Structure formats: structure tokens, C-alpha cells
Here is the input.
Amino acid sequence: MLKKQRVRKKNVAILLALLVLLLLSALFCLLVGSSGMTPDESLRALFGGGSDAQVRIMRNIRLPRMLAALFAGAGLSLSGLIMQTVLGNPMASPSTLGATNAAAFGANLSLIVFGGGSLLIGKDLFLSGAGEPFAVSLAAFLFAVLSVLAVLGLNRVRAFRADAIVLSGVALGAVWTAATTVLQYSATDVGLSAAVVWSFGDLGRASFPADAMIAAATAAGALFFFILRYRYNALLSGDETAFSMGVNVRRLRALSLVAASLITAVCVAHLGIIGFVGIICPHIAKRLLGQDHRLSIPASLLTGAVLLLLADALSRLIGGGSALPVGAVTSLFGAPFFLVLILRKGGTNRA
Amino acid sequence: MLEITGLSFRYKKSAPPVLDGLSAVIGDGGITVLLGKNGSGKTTLFKILTGSLKPQSGTVLFDGEDLLGMPPSKRAARVAYVPQETVYGDMTVCDTVLSARASYVGVRPSKRDRDAVRRALERMDLLSLSGRRMTELSGGERQKAAIARALAQEARLIVFDEPTGNLDIANEWLTAREMKRLSREAGVSILTSIHDPQLALALGGRFLILKNGKADAYGCADDLTGEVLSDCFDTPVRIVEYEGHKIIVKGEPL
Here is the structure.
């Protein structure tokens, strides 16, 4: 029993360390930027001191951007963790059910087909000010949800077997990508560039209303998943054993996939495609604290937020005046890191 | 304890039935060994009893109650399962065993859940390993953890699917001894499939033979003659006595 207490203390220490890291990353993220403000000025401007321009930069640009990185990082990582658990597949990610590809199609449809028309979106690459700021997001979200429901609907006949779900998600994702290509082929220059820019995950699009939606989706998901934490732990023993423990595996899997995909859909709809956070961060969390969902759920939230905050800060540091899209940074640095992670020895026979 | 009537199951409409109107009674207490060739429906029967497959027809009564129609958490309090291969997550032994209480745990585990876990760990002599990660255990210890996981459900019947299938002979005998000990001391009944008729003989208790999706024979270990086994496996099997042991001689000389 002594050993157990020691283990518990160590786990709490790791979670606290991640929390401290989160606060530091968030602060760092606020202080980095192209305006030439010193950290001192930045902090003062955040609380209303300094020139009008400085206050506006901090409150209207950096703060919503930082919050977007925090909540979307946490949300995508959480979504990835649950996908990996309920599909019993370490390669599962927030977009395994095709949500990301479908969202991209929805956004493209909105930008290319309706962009020049009444919605006035195609002319405004950064979706601020004129027109309907959330029209593209709404289209992206609707298609993501549609795709996820289609995958699950199709899998009713196969009793929600994990392998069939993964494969049909990949297949349907390919259909959305193909449809996107067709759209882009027939697009105008303006529409095409708007569509391509959209597909780069970019935190610069963040606004407080978008942040609030991402935060709400992530928080609701986290609560829902945390309530089911023991059921996810049971699922780690395999479908059949989980059934014998009284867990309704099919329903748990279907509901969890819908909830995880909704978080993904909200993030992608507002920010575009941010790759790899949702696959790497749960793995880092599991490396640190194991697969017990009482720990891996909070740990995944924290690692996801930290990683996206740091990636965003990095994207602005190496991008100079114009920030690189954070989606490019996460994939560029995430993929090699992920390779190191999987090629190191260790791991279990599950997810 | 278990009353199975007219149980039929096929994986696809076009496929031949795996279980074809199986009817059998499995008595309370002790060990019942399920014998049969590969594909005779042993695992399918187990999956039906533990809720991961639904039969096309037939009923299973557990002490007179309809086992297949019960809510999953109620069924879990009656029948637990030890799979052939221990699948586990990267968690401590204690958390792995606690996961078996998943369908009872509300907001957080109750005292009853914690007590069930402690008793299960105690029963399998795993208390000293409870803070260890599953990944750090040996194959034999992991098997014991899987049994503790099933025990934590506090079910009256534990179903073992080929518990010795992947073990070397030393661990095979250890597992068989654990099963015997559990059936005597822990007040649980055991239903197990065993590949090896020799081990089935050694386990004693009762046996049930599945053939062509039906119950072919039922009896106690003493009734398990060479003739019964030959019929079960469709291959000549003789039993010879040697220094008080019954030795199974399989097939013709190669």
C-alpha cells in the first residue's frame, strides 16, 4: 500500500508540472509577437495600460489567439485520446472518422461555390469584419457532423466493430477529399486561394466567440468522458471482456465517437486543419501517466494545450512578421517527434 | 445453475449454424469442462453467456432468471469472463482489477467496489503487486491478474476460455490448480473450455461435450472414457492407467 501512495504522489506531481508548464506556455504565447512590444509592455497592455494600439493588440489579437491555442489543443488531444481508446488503435486521431476531410469539403463549398455570392466570404481571406463570419465555420461543422453520422450509420450493420469503423472512416474521408479536389478544380483564383488558405490551420482566425465555442465543446466533452472513465478502462481489456463486465461496448463506442468528433468538428470549423496534435499529445500523456483514464484524460488536455501553445509561439517566432500557419508547424515538428516516440521501446498490446 | 434451451447461433445468414439448438444444464458449484473440436461452438457459447453475441433463438436461464434479457450490469454480477489471451492497458494491477467494476461505479468507486477489488487481489495473492503496472508482470502473473479482474465482478459463475492455451506446462498446471482452488474456496462455479483432454481429466469435475452445435454428452470425469473422447474428437483416443494416473493416448502412431 505504501508503494501505491508513492505512485499516486508521483502522478499528482506530473499533472501539476504539466499545469505549471501550461501556464508558462500560455504566458509565453501572449508575449511573443511581431509588434515589437517588450514583455513588460505586453503585460501592462493586457490589463489596460499603455497605448490604445498596444491594448488592442493584446486584447483583440493575442489573447483570443492564445485562448484558441489552449482550448483547441486541449480539445483535439482529448478527442484523439478517446478515439484511440474506443477504437483500440494507437494510430486513431480526431480525424479518423473523416471529420476533418468533411469539414474541409464544407469550407471549400462555402468559399468556392457561395463565396462570390451572397455570403461574401471568398473576398475576405481572414473572415473578419464584413459578411457572415461563421458561414464557413458552419458549413465545415455541418459536413463534419454529417460525415461522422454517416460512418456510424453505416457501421450499425457491423455492430460497431472498431476495425470496420476505422476503414470506413478512411474510405469516406477519401471521398470528401476527392470531392474537394473537384470543387477546387472548378474554382476561381480567388475562391481557390481562399480555400487553400482555409485549409492551413491558423490560430489567427480566432475570435472570442469562436474561443467560447471551442472551450464549451472541449469542456463538455471532458466532463462526459471523465464520467465514463472506468468504462474506458474496462474497454482496455478488449471488447469481449468489457461486455462481460456489463459495459455496453457498442453504445459506448458510438457515443464516444460522436462526442470526440464533435469537438474536432468545432475546432476544425473555426481554425482549419491542425494536424498531429490529436495523435501525438495523447501518446505523450500515456507515456507519462499510463492509460488509466482518470489520469490520461486530464493529462491529454494539458499536453495538447501546451503543445499547441508552444507550436503557435514557435510559428510566430520563425515566421517573422507573418506567422506561419500553426498546422504546418505541428505537422513539421510533430511528425519526426512522433517517429522517435513510436520507435523507442516500450508500450503495451493496446492503443 | 445454467439452463440452456434450444440455443442457435450463426455468424451470417448464409453460413452454417455454429450452435444448432444446443440444450444443456450446467450444475451449481465445481468445475465444468467444455470439450469439443475446434469450431464446435465453445467460444461462441461463451460469448453468448457474457453478452458480446446475441443468439438467433433459444434461452439461457441463470437460477431461473433470463440471463440474455437482463441489463448488462445485472448479467455482469452473474457471469464473469477470463479470455484466452489477457488483453490489458498500461495501468496498475489494482486499476485493471477495478475496471471490472465499471458498470457499478457511479461518480466514484464505492466502498463495496474497493472491497471487491481488495478481496479479488487477496484471493489471487496479488496484493503485493497491486501497485505494479501490468506491463511489468510476467505472463503467469498477468494471467492471475486477469482472473482477479473477473473475480472482482463477484459473479457466481466464471467462464474461462482456453485458460491454458498460451501457457507452458508449468504455468498450465499452476492455472489449473488456481481454478480448482477457486472452485473450492471462493464459492464460484467455473465453466471452462480445455483443449487438452489430459488436463480435463486432471481437473475432474463435470464435462460437457459439444459436437455439431449440440450437446453430445454430459457427465462427471469418471465417465470420460476413451470411447466418449474418440467420438468427441472424431479421432481414436485411448485411456491407459499408469501408476494410478490416467494417460490419454491420442490417435494412431504416426
